[in-house]
Specification:
Largest sheet: 4 strands, parallel
Helix content: 25-40%
Radius of gyration: 17 Å
CATH architecture: 3-Layer(aba) Sandwich
Order of helices and strands: EEEHEHEHEHEH
Number of helices: 5
Number of domains: 1
Strand order of the largest sheet: 4-3-5-6
CATH class: Alpha Beta
Number of strands: 7
CATH topology: Rossmann fold
Pfam family, one: GD_AH_second
Structural class: alpha/beta
InterPro entries: GD_AH_second, UxaA_altronate/galactarate_dh
Shape: globular
Protein name: Altronate dehydratase
Strand content: 15-25%
GO molecular function: lyase activity
Distance between the termini: 32 Å
Domain D-galactarate/Altronate dehydratase second: 4-137
Length: 169
C-alpha cells in the first residue's frame, strides 16, 4: 500500500490540508477562507483536499467540556492524514490559541500555523496567506510503499448500551 510517512514516524493514507477552528464563532470566517483558497489553487491540486472541521464548541466552556474540546482539537492537529493544519481562533474564547499551542508540545511550525482573527486587519486575507504557506510545504509530500501493519485504526462500537460490555462483548 502507498502511505505518507510523517516526520514523527506516524503514517497517513491521505495528505490533506485541515482548517481547525478553536471556537464555533469563527466557522463562517474559516469557510470563507477555505472557499477562496480552493478557487485560487484549483481545488488544492496535488493534495487530497482542504477540509474545514467546524464545530459549535469552545465558547464559555469550562471544566471537562473545555478539556474534551481541547483534546479533540489536539488529536486532530497531530493526525497523520493532515499534511498541514491551520488553527483559527477568535481571540476571546476559553480555548485561547496561545495556551492551546503550548499543549501541543513539539510540532512542525512549517506544517501547523495559528491565527487569531481579532489580531488581524483582514482575517480572510491573513488566513488565505497561511493556507498558501502550508500548501507550499505539504503539496510536495510523496507517497511511498508501506505496510498495513504500520497504520493505526480507530474503532467504535456505535450500538452499545450500558450493559453490552457485560452481556454481549
Amino acid at each position: 500500500m502507498q502511505i505518507y510517512r510523517r516526520a514523527n514516524g506516524d503514517v497517513g493514507v491521505r495528505n490533506e490540508l485541515w482548517i481547525l477552528p478553536t471556537v464555533g464563532c469563527v466557522n463562517g470566517i474559516a469557510r470563507q477562507i477555505q472557499n477562496r483558497f480552493l478557487k485560487e489553487t484549483n481545488n488544492a491540486e496535488g493534495t487530497d483536499g482542504v477540509f474545514l472541521f467546524s464545530h459549535t464548541y469552545g465558547c464559555s466552556q469550562l471544566g471537562d467540556d473545555h478539556i474534551n474540546t481541547r483534546t479533540m482539537l489536539q488529536n486532530m492537529v497531530r493526525h497523520p492524514n493532515a499534511g498541514a493544519v491551520l488553527v483559527i481562533g477568535l481571540g476571546c474564547e476559553n480555548n485561547q490559541v496561545a495556551a492551546f499551542r503550548e499543549t501541543l508540545g513539539d510540532i512542525d511550525p512549517e506544517r501547523v500555523h495559528f491565527m487569531i482573527c481579532q489580531q488581524q486587519d483582514d482575517e480572510i486575507e491573513a488566513g488565505i496567506e497561511h493556507l498558501h504557506q502550508l500548501y507550499n510545504v505539504m503539496r510536495n509530500d510523496k507517497r511511498e510503499p508501506g505496510k498495513l501493519s504500520e497504520l493505526k485504526f480507530g474503532l467504535e462500537c456505535g450500538g452499545s448500551d450500558g450493559l453490552s460490555g457485560i452481556t454481549a462483548n
